[in-house]
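Folded chain entry
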Amino acid sequence: MEYSGGRSQRPQRDAGRTRSSRSRGGEGLSRRGNGSHNGHGRGMSGAGRPRQQRPLGSGSQGRGRRNGYELRSRTIDFGNAGRRRRIGGFDIRMVLAAVLAILAIVLLIFAVSNCMANNAAQKQEAAEAEKPRVASGISDELSRELANRLDQDDQIAQIASNADQYSDERLVELALNEPDAVSLVAGYLDSDKTAQAYGEEASIGSYLQLYDWDSRWGAVDYAGSALAVTGSGPTVMAMATIGLTGSTDNTPATIAALAEKDGLATGDSSLSGDFFTTESNSLGVVYHSYDTSSENVSAVLTSGAVLAMEVKADSFTPYEHWILVVEKGPDGTYTVHDPTSSSVTAKTWDVDTLASASTGKFYALTKMAS
């Protein structure tokens, strides 16, 4: 057999192996002696036939092989690389993305809220800056008095800027005339207008000074306004009952409610004299009415009673109201508890002044016998 080119060496080696095989086959025959012809033929055909080379890549065994090595595809695992971690069945990256989105929304809402709050505050400041220090719509006299007091008291300045919102100018006047009433008037517009209990001890025969503008009851609605400027009558009756009975159950607010229930919160003083004849006994007090004269005033006070007296406008104050006359002093003057004025209360008054200030009658009040 002839071979050409560079392939001649491989057939020669195969030929050599063939010859060698034949030689070894011949040796086998010689050793076996006289074997059969068929046996010799099989030996020659099995040992002397050159082994054929299977082409690479041919047949099923050659698939996926290159240069005689089998290649198989396999996923390479580098630990956690390329693998999604999961928490409670959720993709951790998805969870983190959701959390960041929620945080972003919260921060956005917070920023918007702050912006709106700042804008509201700026608008409020601008409105306050434009608002006049003394509101218009009030009397010229009040405007002048308020202007003179603006720099002395912040609460007065607050009242002045809102003066037009008070339905009763007497409240503004009260703040100007009574330093202890300023806080009540300043807070009146935002007040819940409820009353509190008296909250102090009292004893029989001791007549405490109460004011209708006391913060415990001054903001309560009475007779179409605030008890602070309309409650002189109920406050007088409260002072009388507390001093005569020693009980503090009946405050100016409770007596005012009783007067309104009976339809007696009337007149220029905001309390009809009929209240004393109608309700005194229910409050533990005995009453007697007298025409006003200096003699009657002096005689009744000497007997141990106290006097509830309605006085005319421009006598003690610019407005008609009630006062409580409690006793005669050693100098012959009389102690007066005026629930509308601390300056009137600070003085003592002669009997003629009291008699001339009266509207016509007064009511002598004593404790009811037990």
